[in-house]
Amino acid sequence: MPLVFFRILGPLEAEAGGRRVPLGGPKPRLLLAALLLQPGVVVSADALTDVLWPGRAPRSAAANLRTYVHGLRRVLGDRIESGAGGYQLHAGPDELDATLAERLVARARAEEAPALLDQAAALWRGEVLEDLPHHHTWTSAVSRLSELRLSVQAERLRFHVSAGRHAEAIVELRGLLAEQPLREELWRLLVVALGASGRQGEALAAYAEAERVLRTELDTEPGVRLRQAVAELDAPAPVCQLPLDLPDFTGRKTGLAELTGLLDGEHPAVVVLSGPPGAGKSALAVHAAHAVRDRYPDGQLYVDLRGTSDSPRRPLDVLAELLHALGVPDAGIPRGLDERAALVRSRLAGRRVCVVLDDAGSAAQVRPLLPGAGAAAVLVTSRGRLPDLTVARHVDVGVLTAAEAMELLARIAGADRVAAEPEAAVRIVAACGRLPLAIRIAGARLSHRREWTLRTLAVRLAGERRRLDELRVGDLAVRASLALSHDQLPRSCARAFRALGGLGPLPFPGWVVAALLGREHADDVLDVLVDAHLVELVGDQPRYRLHLVRCYARELGEPDPDGVRRVVEGYLSLATAERMPVRFFGAAPEPRPADLWCPDRLDDPVAWFAGECRSSNLRWTTVSTGWHGGWRRRSPLASTCAGTTRPGGARTNWRWARPSGQAIHAGRRWCCATSGSSRSTRTITPPRARRSSGRWRCSGASATTRARPSRWPG
């Protein structure tokens, strides 16, 4: 008996030896189908005649029936036998798709094996014998097989839902319900799958549709299991969209304690974390949100607002995303901004949900996303301070402490390597400005280059001009992060930022920005730079400085010579103010030129000079800006301040006069130039000095003294 496989779960087919067998025209196919619906059973010739010629058979029906049987035997072998008054088809349990499906389903139910159900479902290629007209005697067998198909599909989908394969199950369920809208079990599975996916709104809509169909078609209400499924939607599984917490998160103990104290899960909270690019604002927000997950059992949502990108996300689109996460279906989302914001507030009012809004560009982008009442919390990260978001608590995220920075480097690069080269590690951390992103990049480079010593990287980071080239690994780059902040600045602020990069690492007073821009005042520009965390406020006077961003500012262009000249002139005008301390060298101070750029008058010149002496800012300005402003302005600044008594003491400022060994010589050139002589009697040289009791004292000074001390005091 040749191996033959018969298919009736779809169009009628037969295969012999792996090839499809030609079965002839409609009559032989109807004959074979009638026999396959009852395999191993003798079907009477009268029943077969009625199937082939329903209503009225021709006189030649018996002869034609024998002819059709003979033709099938030629292609199928002796599968069809003659019996008592009829014919019988022999097919083993694995030779007919219908009996094979029944056996697979029985095994799957006994073994609880969903894979066997998938095999059984794959045997159906459509409706039973869908290419043939059905005889009324087939109804029972066809209905049984159709019911088996629906049962297999329902059991498969039940396994999928239980296993968490909700998306796949939802697609199949919707297709089945389009064909079988009265199957309550399918509706129940759809409601459960949608609810487990966090799509409570769609689940409620599906239940409402099931209720309508059942009432319209059957005049009945949903059953107990379907009602129970929708009742369980009131306690949905919480949605957690938080990114992975950093396994090597380091430091921030004070900031983290403040955040966890604000996020108590009992009161509404809106917190804005702002700081310079690369400071780890997002990492801190995600870490804090993970730490308080148990206080917000109704879910944790995360949205990247892309505020510093070329295309920040619109609040209208973000609200739609939040509503989806809160279970609102597409059909239930309003079209307008105000309506969506109101619906979000309504959905959050009765829930304890923590929402992280990362990389906000402005308060206007955040404001429509905030909850109204309830105990929901919102963590916002932004490079700007967002002072106009008045409902928020503002927390500054600065650079790490020295100890935290060393710990982070040790966690990434290896504690043993850091312990072996502590001095090099300190230099690396200092070159990174204790900025977490820069330290993370430096540590990643070391961890991927085990043959490097820490000193190797420290040397490569020493030069400011190539430092940002070194602080790059993969898609992490300090330069790219800084560029995003710079590109958001208004034109005048960007110009000031670039100019500040050439003034050195020391703190500077606020009027320097106005001098660089050639304006009388530039407080508005300075405020923007401070709010963008590109300029850091330090000291009480106040003073400002640039951290690692200064390397990027220097890359963007050379300082404007006119701007630098105005900075030097500003310092010179303040140093020659009327109420400054008395000068030494026996020379009166030069009168201030009329064209000198002048900042606002000092309230306390002595305190100003004391602050400049402590910060060494005047010394740095004299040395570092000479090649930009020329010695014409630098020299008088050097000579003026070199001969100024130290505040609170009578000694001459020799330490101030020494920077780079040029201040006095520059002063001599300036004095000669102003007098038109190459050997002016007004040349300034250091006084004779002697050391007594470990201290240098002036033993005399003269404007015409030409003797040079064998050793510089102090």
From TrEMBL:
UniProt KW Transcription keyword: yes
Entry keywords, A to Z: DNA-binding, Transcription, Transcription regulation
GO molecular function: ADP binding; DNA binding
Domain AAA+ ATPase: 267-401
Compositional bias ranges of the Low complexity kind: 674-687
Coiled-coil intervals, chain numbering: none
Domain OmpR/PhoB-type as annotated: residue spans: 18-89
Keyword Ribonucleoprotein in annotation: no
Top-rank taxon, per record: Bacteria
GO biological process: phosphorelay signal transduction system; regulation of DNA-templated transcription
Region (Disordered): 674-714
Residues in Bacterial transcriptional activator domain copies: 96-234
Short name of one Pfam family: BTAD
Membership in a protein family: Belongs to the AfsR/DnrI/RedD regulatory family.
Protein name per its UniProtKB record: SARP family transcriptional regulator
Organism: Amycolatopsis methanolica 239
